[in-house]
């Protein structure tokens, strides 16, 4: 299940890509299959091990094109283990909301991107996330949980403050928002029949990708999309902050 639009990311074969907070590697896998040189980074040892195992399976199955490469590293997003201006693309999907010092993490992303490079960042969308927080403390108030809810304009301004120039935004995963509202309402650790039935629907949609649910999600994403995704470029010359004002409706994103 991809959150980032690879066409907007403009990922091309041979590019060097960092997948930050990679989790179990979903975005790294797609980038590898598209011919990139990928480094997947996460703080969790198990996440790094699982991603490495699956990247190896992709290579063994011949699913990555010639010239592509992939590796993993355990690392802190506030001190990335790569040199300045050394990568073409960065993905940071559903990770900034976990990091107390997110400004330092954004400064690190700007540091490692080459001039002309691009980053795609996704965070939980303000409205759906606010409902989850209101329904359940267990959803977010735990070790390693979500520590903030971003408004779209806040994230835009923090990217500008890091020296990056935001370009495009969109929303994703509308079908997932009601699922999490349901889990928060009944208890995030409770496996009720309704939760199981909705989860089966999401798995079926992920595997089969039928036109009905794909069309429904595309239509509902602007209203209910669980994730807010923003893309930004690193310019050759630092952008004047005053010249990059966020769109007015981003405060509600």
UniProtKB/TrEMBL annotation:
ATP-binding as UniProt keyword: no
GO molecular function: S-adenosylmethionine-dependent methyltransferase activity
Listed transmembrane segments: none
Keyword Methyltransferase on entry: yes
EC class name: transferase
Residue ranges of every copy of the Methyltransferase type domain listed in the record: 18-121
Pfam families, sorted: Methyltransf_11
InterPro entries associated with the record: Methyltransf_11, SAM-dependent_MTases_sf
Keywords on record: Methyltransferase, Transferase, Ubiquinone
GO biological process: methylation
Entry's EC annotation: 2.1.1.-
PANTHER family, A to Z: TRANS-ACONITATE 2-METHYLTRANSFERASE-RELATED
Protein name: Methyltransferase Methylase involved in ubiquinone/menaquinone biosynthesis
High-level lineage: Bacteria, Bacillati, Actinomycetota, Actinomycetes, Geodermatophilales
